[in-house]
Structures are given as structure tokens and as C-alpha cells.
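Batch job 17 of 40 flagged for manual review because the log was empty.
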Amino acid sequence: MRVAYLGPAGTFTEDALREATPNAEYEALHTATVYDAILAVERGQADRALVPFENSIEGSVRTTLDTLAFDAEGVTIVGEYDYAVRPCLIARRELALEEIAAVISHPQPLAQCAGFLRRHLPQAERRAASSTAEAVLEVRESEQPWAALGARSAAALYGCVVLREGVEDVSENVTRFVWIAPSGTEPSGGGAWKTSLVFSELGEDHPGALVEALEEFSSRDVNLTRIESRPLRRGLGRYMFFVDLEGAATDPDVSAAVAGLRGKAESVRVLGSYPVA
């Protein structure tokens, strides 16, 4: 099994993968971006990808949503895994917080720790990196008084020092990861199921058009657990809507609701139907 995920070694995604598959054997395929991880499955370079989908502090991971909507029609979501994220403040050597001139990380941890940075490191510049592990590497290679936000495992892997642990603004900081597989892959698992889909271009633009579309679900007692709009990239004021709902796509009520939605939206795509984490 070839598994693609955001690298290099030492990212939170790698930690989540290890936790989710403690006894599994797989070939790791580190990618430079989440986009590349998903496209590796699309192109047949990987059998699966594990990518971040949603964070309890910062919300949806936009790169994942946009890649699934615009660039990877040949993949499907086949599972999910919730991982507790505890960012650490990491440096090449011991530093006092007031000495730190810049903090480097992926944009998600920078946002998840924004309050800590404002309170304790107001003087430090914020810099974005392609991943948390890449940020730790950048800090290790520089003699400047810089720090990174990343995983404890990355600090150990790259010979750095943890200055502070658990610097996220909310202690219940959980990221929902999803498993990506080639289209046609059948998920397996018992218990409750979830279905994710995206739709856009609601018939004639009129007051209540979105409500009417969502009534396809409410009228059948299908519960929506998440809805989010993203730009459709066709000018201002045009959006697509990402929805998570309870139930499998094969459930009669869910199937009927999706069929009803297809009659009210120009584009409807089921991104995946899979067991709840």
C-alpha cells in the first residue's frame, strides 16, 4: 500500500497516520503539498492519501476542498480520522521568548496559535512554510533566532529543542483527516456513516433558492452536520456548497435527497460516503 501525505517527515499528518494505522505496513510517499498528495492518488502514484480536511479552531482546510472540487474528480473519500493536534514552539537551541525574531509554520498552526503568538511573541514576525516539518527544518538550518510551530516528533527527528508544548489557543484542538482513494473504491466499516458532497449553480437565482435545495434533505429527515460555501471561481457572487450529512449514500432517504438536489443544482458530486470516525 502506497500512502501519500504532506511531508517531509515529522508533520502532524505523519503523526496522525501513525496513530490511525499502528500495525499497518505501507510505503510512505511524502509530498510537498496537500494538493500533491491528493493528485498522487488521482494519477495512480499512490493507493491512498491522508489529508487534513477540517480543524476545530480554524475550520475547513481550503486546499483540500478546492483540490477535491476542481482538480481531482477521479478520487473519493473512503474514511476519516480525528487527531488531537498539539503544536510545540521549536527552536534550534534554547531561546528566551523575547529573543525570537520570527515564527515559521504552515498557515493552519499559525492561525491555531494566533492568541499565544500575540500574547507571548508580539515582536516576532510570522512566516508561512509549506508544512510544519519544513518550518522546523528551516529553523534548524538558520543561525537566526527563529522558532517554528510543529510536532514534538519533528523536534526530535531534526535535533531541535521544544521551548513550549501545547501552544494552541484552544486545548480541544482536533483536526479531522480524510482518507482519499481512487474512485470506485468501496469503503468498509460498521456503525454510523457520513456522506460528503459538493453542489453549485442553483437553477434560477431567486430568494430562497438555497433553502429550497436544502429542503431536499430536511423534508426527508436527513441531518446535515456541516455546510460551507466556497467561491466557484467564475466571478464574484457565485459559490459552491460543501455539505456533510448523516447516513450512507445508499440509504433510501439520502439517495432520494441527492436525486432531488440534482434537479435543483447544475452540478452535484458525492465526494465520498464512509464510516464516521
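Reviewer: the log was empty due to a logging misconfiguration, but the result itself is present. The chain has a mean pLDDT of 94. Unflagging and moving on to job 18.
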